Structures are given as structure tokens and as C-alpha cells.
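Query protein
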Amino acid sequence: MARDLTVIVVDDSQLALAQLRNLVERVEGVELVAWAVNGANAIRSVVHFKPDLVLMDVVMPEMDGLSSLRVIGATHPRTRVAMVSSGAGLGRNAEEAFRLGAIQVIAKPYDPEEIEALLERERELQRELAADQAAAS
């Protein structure tokens, strides 16, 4: 089956990363193409895989999520990014994330249904974009 949505997940917490990976892999039509543990690795993965969506933690070592969102937005504007953040400082981080182009900010601990709903919406968006491109050609 062809994949309608390609995703990269990014989190320095091995538990959160495993949970996000499992959620992504359960949704039909969605392919997890890579995962990373910091923003610098996320950027390299985006350059290599050119995913449709990145699910990324805000607070990480080496390069945080907001800094990498800034780079991804400038260099890969078609890649959509949703941020995942713990409750501490969520307000200020959320405002900055949206200003930098994030499509959604999800609070940790997140509700798996919220992540699945995001993936479903993004998958449908990618299907619509593909249909529009096919109709235009």
C-alpha cells in the first residue's frame, strides 16, 4: 500500500520517542521514515527524507525544537511541524512555536488520540494535495 503521509518523530526521551513511534506506526497510510533525539539530528533527517510531517519535542539537548523548527521552516517550508512540549513553559513555547510556523502544539503527557487525530488530518491533507496535483497535470 502506498503511504499518504511520511513522518519523522523527534524527542530526547527514549520513552516518549518509543510512544510516538508506536503511535505513528499504528495509523494506516502513515509511514515513519526516521526518528531523532535532538534538533540537529532532526534537521539532517528532514534534509535526507523530506517528510510531510515532523512531530518534535520542544526541549532537547544540543539543539532544541524551536531552533530546529526555525531552520526547517526556512529550508523546507513544505514540511509541516507539530511540537510536543511538557506543561512547564508551554505557554511561551507554544506562542513561539506558532510564530515560527508550527501547525499544532501538543502538551505532554499527550493523549494518544490527539496524536492519532493529527496524523489522520495530515494524511487527508496529503491525499488532497496529491489529488490536486494529479488533476492539474
Q: What stands out?
A: Helices lie at 14-26, 39-49, 65-75, 90-99, 112-136.
